[in-house]
Amino acid sequence: MVLALIAMHWTLQGMVWLVGFLLELILAIAIFRFRLHKEFPLFSCYLVLELVRSIMLAAIGPHHPPYFYAYWITECFVSIFGFFVVEEVFRKAFERRLGLQKLGTVLFRYSLLALVVASVAVAAMAPGGDADKLVAAILVLKRAQSFVRMGLVFCLFIFVFLLGLPWGNHVIGIAIGFTVYGAVELAATAARSYYGSVANGTVVWSIMSVDLCQKLIWIAYFIRKPGPRSVESVHEKDHFPVVAAEVSKMNQAVESFLGR
Question: What is each CA distance from 102 to 86, 91, 140, 188, 256, in whole angstroms?
Answer without folding.
Answer: 14, 8, 26, 34, 11
